[in-house]
Specification:
Layout: H1 4-15, H2 28-33, E1 35-38, H3 61-64, E2 69-70, E3 79-80, E4 83-88, E5 94-99, H4 119-130, H5 149-159, H6 164-168, E6 175-182, E7 185-190, H7 197-201, H8 211-219, E8 236-242, E9 246-251, E10 264-268, H9 273-281, E11 287-289, E12 306-312, E13 315-321, H10 331-340, H11 343-351, E14 355-357, H12 382-389, E15 395-401, H13 411-424, E16 428-434, H14 436-445, E17 452-458, H15 465-472, H16 489-498, H17 504-521, E18 524-537, E19 540-541, E20 557-558
Parallel strand pairs: 1-10, 1-11, 15-16, 15-17
Antiparallel strand pairs: 2-3, 4-5, 5-7, 6-7, 8-9, 9-10, 11-18, 12-18, 13-17, 13-18, 14-18, 19-20
Helix pairs in contact: 10-12, 16-17
């Protein structure tokens, strides 16, 4: 059994912070000998699997956990990580994965592992997100007697944790079973051949947990702790956490790969975009992620104190038409609205040139992006738009999810620009700011009442299947991912055919065909592909940032010298 006293103390620390007057200061010994990374608390989670698919990935997660595979540069071929090698059966339906040996889980105040990583951990982790409940004993199978019914309620709720990304790609309709052939070999059986599976297993959502830790928690009727007190195999482990303020990571001395160079990492969660740069210039953090883009012009190009690091991102900001509304089913109307919107002005005003106009659905960073794909067919043409729209006397509602995202740092300002453009074409737009929680509730009730909605998507890997299918397939209509409620059997057919082969050239051609269909029917208006940007002090070296926003802390080092 786990130490209940520690469990209680931890939750008092992390969840009763609203009554605190101020967050504790970061200890000086850590600021002297470690690195502080400034980001924000929006969407923070120690388990990215439970976050809404497409939300900003938590930089902490990749430091704590490992995955079976990883994505290297812009390659379509995943690189083995916890997997040492793999093979595919001749019919393409069985994947046999051979695991690395001698990999240890974290020793923490809340868990002391008694064995190394093995196949049981993979089977548990994958079956959990697939929704298969055979991986842990149920209450009825245990000898524990629960007098308080709240324990039973708590236990059952913990088992009902949702995994939006895996639900959006219908992973449980792809993978039939996961089983251990021996302690170091896992067999994954698919319902049919699927060339995207390894990419999904390389996504930032496919982290591997300790099955031993989960069983121990389950015995304590506390499975929910798996997602709040993390235990992984990564280069860093959690030392402590002050909710919405900071996380302290310390070097995992038992890490199976090359040792991390920095002993302590502080993740400062307390600032907004403007505040991060202020803290950075005050010397309170060495790296500031996603700073206020309007302030980047104030930075000097040749200042030896800092530098800007950026990479192309696997993301898309877009405006979606609600196909449940009769007016929005008119293709000519959708095209005219697209022609009325000055997307170049949005790039200048909102992104300050840290993004590019998205003329396609598939971002340029993806291996399936093609220079031969025709440009967006409905570029800014206000006069043409006005001819079609001015006599229709349209009064449209546009919902905006009012939260900063990588793909849109200022959603309400973007909405106001779109409203102004459409007003010039004779269309009145009523903007409604909504929370993600409210939107999910309305979708659940099937009472979402918008004509258009401003949103976006973040890819977890470079495979177009996991980028386009969640936001546009028939299987995700009326869900938080497909906010256009568009459904095209032809689109789904093309996407499915792309999974029947592992030939990258054929797959790429299929995805571009699907993309042309989207740009022809226009269920969404692509707006921007956004760069991942951070500002780092000159002492910080070897920054390795991915198109998905994660940062590999284990490669970082600090140059000797003055702070």
């Amino acid at each position: 059994m786990l130490n209940k006293k520690f469990f209680t103390s931890f939750y008092l620390l992390t969840f009763v912070v609203n009554s605190a007057m101020a967050a504790p200061r970061v200890p000086e010994e850590l600021t002297d000998n470690g690195l502080i990374y400034c980001t924000n608390a929006s969407g923070f989670s120690f388990n990215p699997q439970t976050a809404d698919a497409g939300t900003s990935m938590n930089v902490v997660t990749e430091q704590i956990y490992n995955k079976l595979f990883d994505i290297s540069n812009t390659s379509a071929v995943p690189t083995p990580v916890l997997a040492q090698s793999y093979s595919l059966s001749p019919d393409g339906k069985v994947i046999t994965i051979h695991l690395r040996r001698g990999i240890k889980f974290h020793h923490t105040d809340w868990f002391k592992p008694t064995r190394d990583f093995n196949a049981d951990d993979v089977v548990f982790s994958l079956n959990r997100v697939l929704g298969y409940e055979t991986y842990l004993p149920t209450l009825e199978q245990t000898s524990v007697s629960y007098k308080n019914p709240q324990y039973r309620i708590f236990h059952e709720q913990a088992k009902k944790v949702r995994f939006p990304y895996f639900e959006s790609i219908k992973l449980n309709q792809k993978i039939e079973s996961v089983k251990a052939l021996n302690p170091h070999t896992v067999e994954i059986t698919l319902f049919k051949p699927d060339a995207s599976i390894l990419s999904h297993l390389a996504s930032q959502y496919a982290i591997i947990f300790s099955q031993e830790y989960a069983v121990q928690l389950n015995a304590d009727d506390n499975l929910v702790q798996l997602d709040t007190l993390p235990v992984g195999t990564g280069p860093y482990k959690v030392k402590n956490y002050f909710r919405n303020q900071y996380v302290r990571l310390e070097k995992n001395k038992d890490y199976w790969k090359k040792d991390a160079k920095i002993n302590d990492i502080i993740i400062d969660l307390s600032t907004d975009r403007t505040g991060r740069l202020i803290k950075f210039f005050n010397g309170e953090c060495q790296i500031a992620s996603y700073p206020e883009v309007s302030q980047l012009g104030l930075l000097r190009e040749n200042d030896e104190r800092y530098y800007i690091k950026s990479v192309e991102g696997m993301n898309l900001a877009y405006l979606a038409f609600n196909f449940q509304k009769t007016a929005m089913q008119d293709a000519h109307l959708r095209r005219a609205i697209a022609q009325a919107i000055d997307r170049q002005r949005i790039i200048r005003t909102i992104y300050h040139n840290t993004a590019t106009v998205a003329n396609n659905i598939i971002p340029n960073i993806s291996w399936a992006s093609s220079v031969n794909t025709p440009d967006f067919a409905y570029d800014y043409s206000p006069q043409q738009a006005k001819k079609i729209l001015q006599d229709k006397r349209l009064n449209l509602s546009m919902w905006v999810i009012n939260e900063e995202q990588v793909y849109n740092p200022a959603p309400l300002k973007t909405a106001e620009l779109i409203k102004a453009d459409l007003a010039k074409a004779g269309v009145e737009v009523n903007i409604r700011s909504v929370t993600r929680t409210f939107l999910i509730e309305q979708l659940h009730k099937k009472s979402e009442d918008y004509d258009m909605i401003l949103t976006g998507w973040l890819g977890g890997n470079l495979d177009p299947d996991s980028f386009m299918r969640p936001i546009l397939s028939c299987s995700t209509s009326n869900e938080i991912t497909n906010l256009s409620n568009w459904c095209s059997e032809k689109f789904d057919q093309i996407m499915d055919e792309a999974l029947d082969t592992s030939n990258q050239r054929i797959r790429s051609a299929a995805y571009n065909q699907a993309q042309e269909l989207i740009l022809s029917e226009l269920p969404i208006i692509p707006i921007a592909n956004v760069k991942r940007v951070l500002v780092a002090g000159s002492r910080v070296q070897n920054i390795d940032m991915s198109p998905f926003g994660s940062l590999n802390f284990s490669t970082l080092s600090l140059r000797k010298g003055h702070k």
